[in-house]
């Protein structure tokens, strides 16, 4: 008789390549999922979905309803590539990823930035930026009036207690999870205590950023976070410190726009945006998304770095509860970076997207 | 008979030390002005003025009317130290420097960031951030409502064509002035063409940042700027590029908040906030202000770095039309940094504020 096996979990993943190099890296992400060791007992099915500037040019909308509906009704998670922004204002166009984050209530944008043994300038960096993903200036409520001295435009920055609480709570959870992973291998860890740094500009924005700060303090004062050290930084000073002593930071929680800026800044610390993943996380859904853009300058040359996407695949799996699969992907990526034999040009290497992918697959 | 001399120009300077190390560095700034070579034919008179958190605690206002009136009626320029922010929200307190910028219509915040031969990690950086200083989220129009899910706070981000135009225009003027200075000593210059980089986030904020971007493009398209190369960067990407290739940048023009963040980021590139000056510039007034804060951690130890303030003195003089005096101060500071004999602890040295000041004075 056959040996009894646990039924495999099947995850349905939406693939949204978007524009530019998004179309080169998302297929690499798919290959990773298809090539996971069978011992993980995971199966995947895929559905190709449209979004982006080209979709806008063809159909008049950058985010077709079908894409949103399919994600909501059929999928467990998704991978999103990148979208081009038009170089001058185009009526009716607006970023599909910003809309998607809101429509699926993916309230946390999680952006880990980490050096590996082979990819560091001496200082080991291992931090995560946890960016609020649904409000702040991203509510995009703007208006323009014609004044006596010309046009005056206004935008709303909205900060709610609700969104500030849940983002701070998940930041705390992530800090705890990281601490658990570290205590499993104490030898390689340099950090004793979990830490969350709250970023804001409440010295100027006493109500909005003041609310973010207070609420974050309250969320992180919960009993379950008693082992987490909580501190705060004004956003300008945060950027300064991020560059002066990045090794000091663990989890950084920030309102949407500061999180956007900080994560690009942190990416610069590890050498290339092409290495930095993100996940847009909601209560029961996650979209993996490389932090880089559509990179029109290198599009079509087959040299875009797939690492950010591959790590985003792992991050998505982590938030879908598949931490073991995630750990294996991270380890394969670290192996590729440490060996430094197959690196794309953004990393100073000469490898193609395909060669890097093959090298990671070999290590999986 | 006596030789005929040009009448000395007398400038009256308001001194606003503020809180913390502001009180240690502003006296150093005064000493520099008092010690300028007599060949410059400049005289100074001083008036001490109050502002800051301690002033708020004593008088209930962080920026007394008397300070504003005296600056407006009596002074040609001023030096501002730093102010403490209360660590939790204090009703009625708000930043006096933000208020001062608006009350005196000091619409440009000019923040040069520069390495010297002795103070660089290889890449020579010589850039200026020109930050709009009167609007954006700094209008501080906020409100909070109690919603069904808790509090919701909103702030207005205001961008006007008027303010965007004049800040872009002065950014262009600064680019031209820098080009002139470079052509006077072509041997030491590595840059051929003046450049202005417009920073914005118009891919999300199409109206507000879109207006900034369009207006900046228009201002910089003026005939007088035909020798200036104009480009643009989305703010997150700007932070990334600033760290990856800072040597590429010349003049960066940005709305208020991005300028605030970018200038702290740029400061990290030159090793210490203690080196970075700023000037708050209006049509007929300039306030020199070191970019650092009140630094409660080192207050009272006599080890705060006076360089940011000394350079701010030079910058103030530059915008008051005294470019020659400014150049002499910059040269004395470069001398101090290149010799690296008297450096404060933030620079890895052991010198006191007084020793650094004395060394700069010696070189003046
Ligand atoms: C493309 C843009 C709208 C987006 C953002 O600002 O969120 C990007 O910068 C990111 O970080 O994912
Ligand atoms: C103290 C604070 C209000 C101020 C600002 O945000 O402008 C400071 O950060 C600066 O850069 O001068």
Structure summary:
Chains A, B: Pathway: Amino-acid biosynthesis; L-lysine biosynthesis via AAA pathway; L-alpha-aminoadipate from 2-oxoglutarate: step 4/5. By secondary structure, chain A is of the alpha/beta class. The first copy, chain A, is 38% helix and 21% strand.
Can you walk through the features of this model?
2 copies of one chain form a homodimer. The radius of gyration of chain A is 20 Å and the shape is globular. The first copy, chain A, starts with 8 loop residues before the first strand and ends with a helix. In chain A, strand 1 (9-18), helix 1 and strand 2 (42-48) form a beta-alpha-beta unit. In chain A, helix 1 (22-34) packs across helix 9 (307-319), helix 7 (235-244) packs parallel to helix 8 (256-269) and helix 9 (307-319) runs antiparallel to helix 10. In chain A, the strands form 2 sheets. The first copy, chain A, has a 10-stranded mixed beta sheet, sandwiched between helices. The first copy, chain A, has a two-stranded antiparallel sheet with strand order 6-7. The first copy, chain A, has 364 residues and is an alpha/beta fold. The model of chain A has no long low-confidence stretch (mean pLDDT 94). The first copy, chain A, is built from 11 helices and 12 strands. Chain A has helices spanning 22-34, 53-59, 65-74, 96-103, 161-184, 208-220, 235-244, 256-269, 307-319, 323-339, 353-363, and strands at 9-18, 42-48, 77-82, 108-114, 126-132, 142-147, 150-160, 194-200, 228-234, 251-254, 279-281, 286-288. Chains A and B meet through strand 6, strand 7, helix 5, helix 6 and helix 7 of A and strand 6, strand 7, helix 5, helix 6 and helix 7 of B. The complex binds 3-isopropylmalic acid (2 copies). One 3-isopropylmalic acid (IPM) sits between chains A (95, 97-98, 260) and B (203-204, 236). Chains A, B: InterPro entries: IsoCit/isopropylmalate_DH_CS, IsoPropMal-DH-like_dom. Chains A, B: It catalyses: (2R,3S)-homoisocitrate + NAD(+) = 2-oxoadipate + CO2 + NADH.
